[in-house]
Structures are given as structure tokens and as C-alpha cells.
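Q: I'm writing a short methods note and want an example of a predicted protein-small molecule complex. Could you take the sequence and the SMILES for pyridoxal-5'-phosphate and return the bound structure as C-alpha cells? Please keep the output block clean; save any remarks for afterwards.
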Amino acid sequence: MGNKQNTSSLQLSGSKVTPACWRTWVEIDRTDLRHNIDVVKKRVPDAKVIAVLKVNAYGHGMEQVAKTLSCEVSYFAVASYEEGLRLRQAVKKVPIMLLSAALPCEYPLIAKEKFIPTISSFEEARAFAGVSPARAPIHVMIDTGMGRLGIAAAKALQEVHKIAKLPLTIQSFSTHLPSADEDVKGTRAQLAAFKKIMLQLQKIAPCAEIHALNSAGVLRFSKETHCAVRVGLMLYGVSPMPAFQKLLRPAMTWKAYVSLVQKLSKGATISYGKTFIAPHDLTVAVLPVGYADGYPWQLSNKNVYVLINGCRCPLLGRVTMDQIIVDISHAGKVFVGSEAVLLGKQKKEEISASWLASKAGTISWHLLTGIGERVKRCVI
Ligand SMILES: *Cc1c(COP(=O)(O)O)cnc(C)c1O
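A: Understood, no commentary inside the block.
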């Protein structure tokens, strides 16, 4: 707890360890996670929180994030049955919703674990009912513009009437917003359309909870809340829109130890393709992290840097599979074992997920969920 820079006593799965021999790891600050969930609750005070923990909690480490948030949220949501099983081992009591369409072979397994599947048609509901105990909970999605899962809005009333006759419990109705971060007018219209449909569907299943807002929705359309919200990215302290970033605290710091320090002469070429040629003598550090760990290859020659001693150390040449090379000529004393920050804060400098993602030509969600298995996770 406390000082983020102090890595001398980190916790891993409850036991104290030092990352003395880790090559690259992410540190998750619990107080930041708690701050972010408080922001959600302040914006939508009457709503239940569905914490989205898919893809290893957006790269943050599913078990530790789940334990940190278990008393603060009403549901967890993950993509698939397999993710649900992993989550269930970590936290027993919080109901788990599955957000991607399930495969028919998974239905009996989902029913057995009492996970809540997302249903997009009467046929799907009927097949699930066929393998489930009586009154198993389901989550029925209505498509109002995402074009991915859900019953088409125009057919919703008729289909839900049929679903309601099956021996299942409609635990919730939802829709998904495809452009809450980009299109205010369109999203307002979408939410209004959903509200209209819900007036009818609620008569069929009066106890069902209703949810539509994702992170961008909670930040921008908090007045249009329903019973619950499904938040992912903002829980981790990253805003989909820059204007709201200051409300949140990024919980992740991605670090690596310097594994080698090298002196290169003027004219030396660096990394595959020899795309960087030393314009003068240089001191470089090699870091044991590469694109196989999720540090995007697309960051090659995009003027990005890592932080060492609180200084910006430019990435030189291409990102390789397991290692990157950075210029430490202006970073003071750097040794094998010095700590480098690839994402997050060090002293007065900060590398944000949105900035790094945009440099790689991608989005924050992709950057975070791409952080690989070799990267250790710990909470502070
Ligand atoms: C992943 C996901 C979310 C979370 O979205 P964020 O933008 O990360 O808040 C919400 N709803 C559904 C259906 C999802 O698949």
C-alpha cells in the first residue's frame, strides 16, 4: 500500500514477495481501483455495478481485481464460460454474467455453474432452458445499434413474450452502446429508443434489472441510468474520452528491469531492419520486454519512450519479440537492475494508456488486454 515507487514489499496472492527476479511485471494499486469504483458510484448513485473483468481484468490480473472489488459490486461480467470458471475460483459469492454469446456445448456447463448467459433469441433461450435447472437466470440483450448480440428492437416484444414462457428467470434486459464515446446525439437517440422498448418489456418481466451504460456511457450519460451499469475500462482508471481522464486514476504501472547496458558508437545500427542509426555515440539499455509481452510492435519508430530515473528514454529502432532498446544517454546513472516504467508514472513523468495506444494506432482496451502472460501481476 502507499508509495507506488516502493517495490520492496509487494504482495502476490496474499504472500509477500519482492519482484527481485522478475523481468517485467505490472503493479496494480488497490487504492486506485477503489477510487475509480467510487467515481462510478458517485456518477450513478442508484445503480448496481456490474464490474467487467474479462481478459484477465483488462490485463490487470483477474483474481486480485475481483478480490479487491467483490464487496463493492453486484455482479462480475466476463466474456466466456472459461473466464467465469477462473473467476469463480477467486471469488465465490458474486454472481457472474457472460457477455459473449455462448456455444451450445457450453450451455450445460454454464447452467451447472449458475453463470448468467447473454441471450439473443428465443431459440437460444429454449436451448439453454433445455439443459438448465428450473428458473435459471438469463440476461436478455436487445440490439439497438451494435449489430452484434441481442434481439432486434423491432422483434423484441414478440420474442420476449415467448422467452418469458420458458422455465427461466429473466434476470436482466440490456442493450450495448456502440459509440457513447464518439456520438452524443446518436447515443441519446439510442438510449431513448431503448427506454421505449423497455416500457413494454418491463410489463412482461417486472423484476428484471435493466442496464445499458458502459464506461463512456457512465461518464457522459450518467443521467440516463437504469438499474445497473456495466463498467470495464474506467474501473481500471482509463477514460475512453480524454476530457474525463482527470476524474480517474490509472491503476496499472508496467515495469521492467534493465537487463543490459551497452555503449554504441556513432553509426551503429539498432534492431531489425536497422531502422535506427546512432547519430553519435550512445549509451543504451536493453529491457526484457517485447511485442510477445504485449508491448506493441507498432510502437517501433513512433517517438515513444520509457521512464528510467524519472527521465524519458526514447525507444530506438524496432520492438522485438522479447526485448526493446532505449536511449539512456540523458537518464543519469542507469544500471542492470534499474527500474524502467513502460506505462504509468515515475517521479514527475507519466505515460498514459491512451497516449501509448494512440501511438501504436490502437485503442486503450486493446493495449491493456494485450499485456501478455509472461508479465507478472502484483497488487500494492
Ligand atoms: C466489454 C463490455 C463492456 C465494458 O465496456 P467498457 O467500455 O470497458 O466500459 C460493457 N458491456 C459489454 C457488453 C461488453 O462486452
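A: Remarks, as requested: Residues 288 and 320 are 10 Å apart (CA to CA). The two ends are 5 Å apart (CA to CA).
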